[in-house]
Amino acid sequence: MKKRKMLIKKQKISFRFFLLLLFLTGLFAGATSYLSYYQAMNLTTNDSDSVVKGYYLLRDFEQQLAVAKEKGDNEEKMQKNIRYLATAMASYGTKTASTINSKEGQLTLNRYYNAIKQVGMNASTQTKNFYGNAQIVDSFLEDIEKVKVYEKAAFTYYKVDETAFSEEK
Question: Is this model's pTM higher than 0.85 or not?
Answer without folding.
Answer: no
